[in-house]
Amino acid sequence: MRGFDSERAMTAVKVSAGPRNEGDSPMRITKALLSTAYHEAGHAVAAQHSNVSVESVTIVPSEDSKGVVKHHNPVWGLNLESGDDETIRMRCEAGIMVCFAGEIAQRRFNPRGVRRFDWEDDREQAIQLADKLESGKAVDLYLAYLRQRTKQHLEIDSVWKQVAATADALVAGNGTLSGNEFRGVFWRAVGIEPLAESGN
Predict the structure, then answer these.
(1) What is the pTM of this model?
(2) How many CB atoms lie within 10 A of CB 21?
């Protein structure tokens, strides 16, 4: 995961690469690839529901990741050292829930397919954001609360349809969705025809 530095306008969440088998085809549709697709779809859908603009979603592997969601940084421009206020808490919570959504979606799709390296970067970033709001043992309690909120959100039928549709679109195509393509899948999954967008 790229850091949620408040001076960076863009950031990303990813599935860490972990071990790979020699000779694996990056786009051969396997349970592992589908798990990655659900992981990235979870991040992307949570971001969209948190009003965090998604720039792209991919499950094309790189040297350090199996997939990546690039999105606007929810804490960009905020002074995170200025103390807790409503805006900082709201935007940090959005970032934390985006972090958690990947592993939760992946685990719902394939409970046995989740490995620690799939989500450890996400958790580290969530901890970094939570540390801006809480301290000591309260950090773990706060993260547990937000993880449960994220899980409950993804269990909403319409939201899970958006996750599944995004994952299906990733494996059915070339493994990458632009921001516009993702939002088209996101809205059509719930029967809404999106308005045309310019750019990504």
Answers:
(1) 0.85
(2) 6
